[in-house]
Amino acid sequence: MPEATLTEICDEVVACSRCPRLVEWRSESAAHPPARFAHEAYWARPLPGFGDPRATILLVGLAPAAHGGNRTGRMFTGDRSGEFLFGAMHRTGLASRSTSVAADDGLELTGAYVSAVVRCAPPDNKPTPQERQNCLPFLVREIRALTELRVVVALGGFAWDGVLRAMGEVGFRPPARPDFGHLAEATIGPYVLVGSYHPSQQNTFTGRLTPSMLDAVMSRARELAGHA
């Protein structure tokens, strides 16, 4: 069953320690939190994907934030990027609520699964090429396990590149490498890849990515996936 396969992948992700630099950084971040999180126990492990095992839409980010997912134990949870992302997902019917503050806050996804190219928080949000390659098999396996998957939304250029690499490992390579862009689309085998600017504060605070722009990505993904 797809659910059991995804559960196995999640268990393997959480137990991973292949990247010494990331292991050190996720622990260092947990040991020296900002004052507002000083009372909290950090997850400080790799993050698995989460969501609907029957998802037709997969959203892929770069990596967990040191004081977001690395703290809470769930992708895009407990930071401003997650607030922006799940706000859009809620408005377009993919998430049960618009906020994501803790792994046990009751958030449920419908028709969507959220993951990342790299599963540990990297220093300066910049994984090395080797760290990306170490993590990539997890994304490959998630794509295979999501048997109803039709659309992959890449949140940022790093995710776009990672998804293309993962698709190649799955067995699908476009004849020419498609360029990343907001609302860019590329058909890759049975999937459609859709690009979106990453919901980082660097983009959302400057207006490069607005709520309506991210809503448009989610609505397009729903349309391509055949959601009513």
Give a structural overview.
The structure is a single chain. With 228 residues, the protein is an alpha/beta fold. It is 40% helix and 12% strand. It has a single domain (2-34, 41-225), classed as Uracil-DNA Glycosylase, subunit E. It has 8 helices and 6 strands, in the order ααββααβαβαββαα. The model has no long low-confidence stretch (mean pLDDT 96).
Q: Can you give keywords for this protein?
A:
alpha/beta; 8 helices; Uracil-DNA Glycosylase, subunit E; globular; 228 residues; six-stranded mixed beta sheet; single chain
Blueprint (SSEs and pairs):
Layout: H1 2-14, H2 20-31, E1 50-51, E2 57-61, H3 69-72, H4 80-91, E3 112-116, H5 129-145, E4 151-155, H6 157-170, E5 185-188, E6 191-196, H7 201-204, H8 211-225
Parallel strand pairs: 2-3, 2-4, 4-6
Antiparallel strand pairs: 1-3, 5-6
Helix pairs in contact: 1-5, 4-8, 5-6
CATH topology: Uracil-DNA Glycosylase, subunit E
The biggest sheet amounts to: 6 strands, mixed
Q: Given the C-alpha coordinates, what overall shape results?
A: globular
Work out the helicity level.
Answer: 25-40%
Number of helices: 8
Q: What is the structural class?
A: alpha/beta
Poorly predicted regions: none
The overall average pLDDT, rounded, is: 96
Distance between the termini: 25 Å
